[in-house]
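Forwarding the complex inputs:
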Amino acid sequence: VQLQESGPGLVKPSDTLSLTCTVSGDSMTTYYWTWIRQPPGKGLEYIGYIYSSGTSYGNPSLQSRVSMSVDTSKSQFSLSLTSLTAADTATYYCAGGEEATGYFDFWGPGILVTVSS
Amino acid sequence: SYVLAQPPSVSVAPGKTANITCGGDNIVSRSVHWYKQRPGQAPLVVIYSDSARPSGIPERLSGSNSGDTATLTISRVEAGDEADYYCQVWDTHTDQVVFGGGTKLTVL
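Prediction (whole assembly, two chains):
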């Protein structure tokens, strides 16, 4: 399974970030899909995950600003993050794993998103 | 929320053994996964479900989990092992993914 993130590299404060992850190599069903970010020089932060059914769960610290969706017909899942600030500057990774395993064994290369006016 | 604690850094000489710990309340009741991340690259799972190795991961890497501490052990450390290592669990009580803060392994 291969993943590839796409979206803008530069967004303005207070705007909404929209990212898409395209999945290839296998069907999206039986897997769960996640978004994880990493601010420059810092550790990994879980954003949320979504099942191919569309059920999603977000990190409580971000949940009010996060929404996720999945389109299995396009083999894509997406992230929307609202009310951006400089603190949201990070490399955003999409990742996936087999349901119920609890870990993620395939990852996209990541996309650096900078929040700046 | 569940918290995982890792030492910020571990240093080891080539050929020696590195132990990277991941502390959490009764972590033995959870399944722990470990990722290796080299600069500019996405994380790669190196140990899953406490001690299982994905295909392609050398036997020099092993994992254990007991009490409040899970440990990633790297034997016969090589220069290529230098990276950041993260532990991760799935908190079934909250249905949330939790990462440790990461440990930078330096090969002297």
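DSSP finds no helices and nine strands in chain B.
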